[in-house]
Amino acid sequence: MSHGNISQKINNIETDTPAPEVGATSDEQLALSAFLGFVRRQEKETRGVKVAIALAEDSLQRLADGKALAPYNSAQVAELAADGSASERPTAWLAKVWPELEKRLAQWELGLQDTACQAGLAIYARPKKTQGAGGAGNSSSFGFAFLPVQGDETSGPPAAPDGITYVRDLTLKPAFWIRPLVQAGFALKGWRRAVFLTYGLGGMAIFGLVLAGLWVVLTTGWASIPVAGIGSLLMLGSLVGWLGYSLLRPFWRLIDWRIIMAPDILVSIRERCVQLEAGKEPTGDGSHVRVIRLVRYSGDCPVCGETVHLQNGGREFHSRLVGRCDEHPAEHVFSFDRHSRTGRPLR
Ligand SMILES: [Zn+2]
Q1: How far is the CA of 269 from the centre of ligand 1 (A)?
Q2: Which residues have CB under 8 Å from 150's CB, separation 6+?
Q3: 162 Cα to the center of ligand 1, angstroms
Q4: Tens digits of residue pLDDT in 26-41
Q5: Helix (H/G/I), strand (E/B), else coil: 47
Q6: How far apart are alpha carbons 310 and 326 in whole angstroms?
Q7: Cβ neighbours of residue 35 under 8 Å, at least 6 residues apart?
């Protein structure tokens, strides 16, 4: 689908043109269904999520009835979301709930696009607030924007019938200390590139020097050090070695493998099955920049329908990430191809 076509479609939503004929499934309907499918998979149903689901369901219903999409006011949204606390002062209620939804939307961005892309769509649906001019009778309205899916490095053949497709669901809470760095992806250019390389190479140098220093102390002065002192020095040496190994190993693995399970220290305790990915993103001038980000790939198990998350392959699938079904982790195991975001059964 061309871009002109898309912007025309977006205009169609905003001006009140007639909806497509009843019976024909339009791209907007498919995009809304894809949106619903993605949002319903979210673990926590917050008020914002409820509003998004209610809006999408009603919009779908309108299209199915052959009506055009029309913007909703806050009273209508509150009624759709059927939130008891909302009915008295819907505008104030929605003014609190909408920012919650916006925050989630920012985290879902990639997942929404992946889902639409996998449904063969060139557009995806995203809830949108249109600011009113202010004053009584001019309040904000709510609805959906249909935006073009941004292509990136990953695309490929669809999964086999018994295979699985993964999407990046980005509902992640990075650990508080790393949040400012990785919230929107950590682009490896400028000072951030320097920070990244300093961490890896500088870290190696520091740990190497400490270990070498300890070795020198032990070999040259061991006669003058009491036995207990040698013991503590050896303990210190292995502690430093272990610390360096566990802090620096993810760095090198990420460079080698482009995607690894995120070290726990980077992720909030409540999150699990999170990956650290060094992806390529277009910069707009034809070149690419590496972006390190926390993502979580997940998919629906083709056997039982439960959610599949990625885990380290362990001894059996050495050096690989594999998708394991939450309900039947031992048997429902799938490969993971980051390029095509698909997998095939491994059992
Ligand atoms: Zn399963």
Answers
A1: 25
A2: 113
A3: 12
A4: 888 999 999 998 888 7
A5: helix
A6: 10
A7: 52, 56, 112, 115, 116, 124, 125, 126, 144
Label residues 71-93 b or e (16+ Cβ within 10 Å = b).
Answer: bbebbbbbebbebeebeeebeeb
Cα–Cα dist 42/328, whole Å: 20
**Tens of pLDDT along 245-256?**
888 888 888 888
Give the pLDDT confidence of 40-97 residue by residue, as tens digits: 877 677 888 889 999 999 999 999 998 888 889 888 888 888 766 666 788 888 888 8
Give the Å distance between the CA of 163 and the centre of ligand 1.
12
CB 174 within 8 A of CB 266: yes
Measure 330 CA to ligand 1 centroid, in angstroms.
Answer: 9
Compute the distance from residue 211 Cα to the ligand 1 centre, in Å: 47
CA distances from 219 to 216, 229, 235, 242, 253 (A): 5, 13, 15, 21, 33
Distance from the alpha carbon of residue 305 to the mean position of ligand 1, in angstroms: 6
Distance 308 CA to ligand 1 centre (A): 7
In whole angstroms, give the CA distance from residue 288 to residue 291.
9
Position of tokens 């999407």? Answer: 167
Please report the DSSP string for 96-108 in residue order: HHHHHHHHHHHHH
CA 328-333-334 angle, to 5 degrees, is 140
* Distance in Å, CA 226 to ligand 1 centroid: 59
Q: How far is the CA of 207 from the centre of ligand 1 (A)?
A: 44
Give residue 249 CA to ligand 1 midpoint distance, Å: 32
Residue 331 C-alpha to ligand 1 middle, in angstroms? 8
How remote is the CA of residue 122 from the centroid of ligand 1, in Å? Answer: 30
Q: Find the radius of gyration of the CA atoms of the chain.
A: 25
Distance 310 CA to ligand 1 centre (A): 13
